[in-house]
Model the fold of this input.
Amino acid sequence: METNQNKMPIVAVVAVLILIIVGGTFIYSKLAVAPSKENPVDNTPSYASKCGLTIENVAANGEVEFPLTLTGTVNNPEGADCSWIMFEGQAGVATLHYQTKDGWSLPVDTQPIPVENWMSTSTAFSVTLDFDNSIEQLPSGYEFKVIFTEDDPSGEQTPDTLGLPVTLK
Done:
C-alpha cells in the first residue's frame, strides 16, 4: 500500500516541471522578435537599408544577372538619427566586386548613384552596374557584393557604406 510520503516527491517533481514549462513559455514570448524586413520569419526578402538609403528591387543574397539595375530611395526625414548624404545630383557611388580566394576583387564596375531630386528629403534613384562574365566565366551562384558609398563633399567625415551581397544567376 502506497503512502502519502511516497507520493510527495512525485508531486514536487511534477510541480517543478510545470513551473519550468510555464516560465519558459512566458520568457520566450517576451523575448521573441516580431517579424520585420530585417528579421523575416518566412521567406520574405530582406532588403538592404542604412541611414536613409534603401535598395528596393534586389534582396540581400538575391540572384542577379548583368547588367544589374538597382533602384531604391534616399529618405532623410527631419530629425533622423543619421541620413545618407546627397550632393549635386547624386548619393555617392556604387561599386561591384566579386569573391576571390583572397577576399573581394577590386571594383569591376563603379558608377555614380544619380538621384531624381538631391534637394529633397526623399527621392528615388537608379544605378546600373555591369560585369562581362565571358572573361571570368564564373559559375551560377558565385558571390558578388555591391558597395554603396555616400558622398562626403566636405571631406571631414567618414562616408557611410552599405554592402549588398548578391549571387550570380
Remarks:
- The chain has two domains: 1-32, 47-168.
- Residues 47 and 86 are 21 Å apart (CA to CA).
- Residues 1-32 form one domain.
- Residues 30-42 have pLDDT under 50 and may be disordered.
